[in-house]
Amino acid sequence: MPSNRRRPLPPFAPGLLLLLPFLAVAPPPAASAVGVNWGFASSHPLPAAQVVQGLLLPNSVPRVRLAAASSDALSALAGTGVAVTVGVPDALLRPLASSTKAAAAWVHDNITRYASSVRFEYIAVGDEPFLLSHGQHFQPFVVPAAANIKKALTAAKLSTKIKVVVPCSADTYQNASMLPSKASFRPDVNKTMGELLSFLSNNSSPFMVELDPFLSFQRHKNLSLDYYLFQLMSHPVKDGQNKYDNYFDASIDAVVTALTNAGFSDMDIIVGRAGWPTDGAVNATPAIAQSFMIGLVNHLAKKSGTPLRPKVPPVETYLFSLLDEDQRNTTNGGYERHHVFLQLALMVTALLCHLVAPALALAGLAMCHMRSTTTTNSMIRVKTAATSMA
Question: Among 121, 128, 316, 325, which one carries the catalytic annotation?
Fold first, then answer.
């Protein structure tokens, strides 16, 4: 007889609580809002209700990006106020592009049914459909699928509340020199990209880019690890009058340049993915991933923007990822299955409290609550050394 006991959360789960000071603070104008990616490619997934009630809600995580529509996840998120982005897998692009009825049915089953209680923010059409390794396999269906989803949202009177976006891999634009000013969209996607950008612009939707700093680090041996970890560099990358001391800013400005060259210089940008693996390859370690996460959240908290967009950081940045996925595609390498950041959060608590919750830091004590997976509740008290961080 199956047990009704809830499966315990991983032992590192309390780490997520300690992202609270950064995730939960409402961003002021021109600040980058932060969310988390939640994928489902796991052979032993945690129950959705347990993830929401035991991880997201106790820590006031404000937004989550679902890799695909999940009735369990959406039901668990109902009534929580968490902003939700729902992904549409690449496999559905062709049928959604070829049939308005199919798009209407998808929107009804996965959006309209939950719209009264789930705070939907975006529908992300495709999972990096322009990935270079995909060739032309999905490209013809991206914009038609997005357009049909938009029509279905309009028919359901939801189009003013929910925007349609398309997650674009970093190799959608080419930049062999790694200089932002040289970036442009790949020739083989130029026509489709023009159609997509027009669609996004006409519907006031942002451009979503997926960043994989680890893959970039592997491929560009001339760039130091410090560049990817937001470490101070004695010789920053020079691009004309601009200087770049980290991969993140250079990547954003590469997107800005590509958008500008395509005629959409003012389009907002969302970073749909940013993380560093903890296993599966050389330099994929918890220690280095910790350094990346500290650098990323520190950088986002400064709200400094980039050389091409000073004081204007990405509209949103989604950390990758909430949980490890042992069945995730490993085209780029086995490290793809090891991106969980929960165990790293414990290491950055004091930094986050100091940066974005100074009242807590000055008080010398950050108190984070977690609903225990046993019969009692637990409280984690993390002492912060505010004076040593000033």
Answer: 128
